[in-house]
Amino acid sequence: MAELVFFSGTMDCGKSTLALQMDYNHRARGRGGVRFSRNDRAGGARISSRLGLETDCVEVLDTTDFWDEVIERRTRGLRVDYLICDEAQFYSPSQVEQLARIVDEIDVDVFAFGITADFRTRLFPGSQRLIELADRVQVLQVEALCWCGRRATHNARTVDGVMVTEGAQVVVGDVDMALDPASAGAADHTPVVGYETLCRRHFMRRVTAHGANVMAQQDQLLPFEVDACLWHGAGEPQDKRGTS
Description:
This protein has 244 residues and is an alpha/beta fold.
């Protein structure tokens, strides 16, 4: 019986690595499949892992119809037993419904991989629909880590190292994008948008690795017993709690 399986987790937990591994395993057993992705860090029509693995795929667009993609290939005599759908959080709810229809009516396995929530802790529309329709939702066992060493549970967006909670839901960036302190104060400096995985404690207090380093260099206490939202580099505080 074919299944729609959603593999979810934060950034840095190995979703794309697993997608490539699963594709390899199925092809090694003689199964035919199609790889899909959208907004991959390596560019269009690519699936890439931070471990250095990378391969080609079909880029998912707003106009992509997965049903048509499968039928067109089978009409040409190609074997399609499964689909690998990376960055599935960026798919539209209707595209997720197409994937569910493919599983139910054509008996094709669909393995979707994606982030559940955005930098505001809001569910991506594609991820929400996958959670609603998937036969199984599997949280990846490889744990991403916060800068403090705790298990990371939230994805944070940063601009020049400072966490932000407003803006467009989709802005392409990566966890490897770092701020160059020498250029931060330049008049022609372009703000660097990056992403970071944080534990809930530091996500709620808006303390990134860059912020923690700045406070350490200034001989300030790290935000364990103090409210780091009051630190000027953390942006607007999420609550009005004071310190004692």
